Amino acid sequence: MLVKDTVVEGTTYQKLQFPEEGTMSDVGLPQLPQVTRLVGFAPEATVSAHLTFGDELTMPGYYVVPAQHPADYPYPPPPFSLNSAVYNTDAWFLGPGATASASELGVWRDLGTAVAVIRPLVFNPVQ
């Protein structure tokens, strides 16, 4: 996992990323890493996602940066966004769709297609 410190308005945040993977992008919510894949299946099949976790690892000392609006250069960047309801709550933030999701996308040639998203990290901004 790649970790990069960034300071915004006097607060140090960490941007977490898996090499060559994306992150959650809901503005103001923790920008946690995620793995997204396009999968194919028989057209008559249905799609669901289930994630089984193995060993759990707690990594203290991270304050995950919230996702921001994309910057439209050369214009000034939009104001910093942080969802204070999430960042002030002593609870594990799982993100939209929780830890794993699959959504049927459509048909490509003779295959059904779906987008599978895995979010293996959770974050408690208060702890």
Overall description:
The chain has 127 residues and is mostly beta strands. The protein has one domain: Sandwich (Immunoglobulin-like). 3% of the residues lie in helices and 33% in strands. The protein is built from 1 helix and 6 strands; from the N terminus they run ββββαββ. The strands form 2 sheets. It has a 4-stranded antiparallel beta sheet with strand order 3-4-6-5, with no helix packed on it. Strands 1-2 form a two-stranded antiparallel sheet. The longest helix is centred in the C-terminal third of the chain and has 4 residues, at 84-87. The protein is globular and about 55 Å long. The two termini are 21 Å apart. GO terms for molecular function: cysteine-type endopeptidase activity. It holds the Pfam family Propeptide_C25.
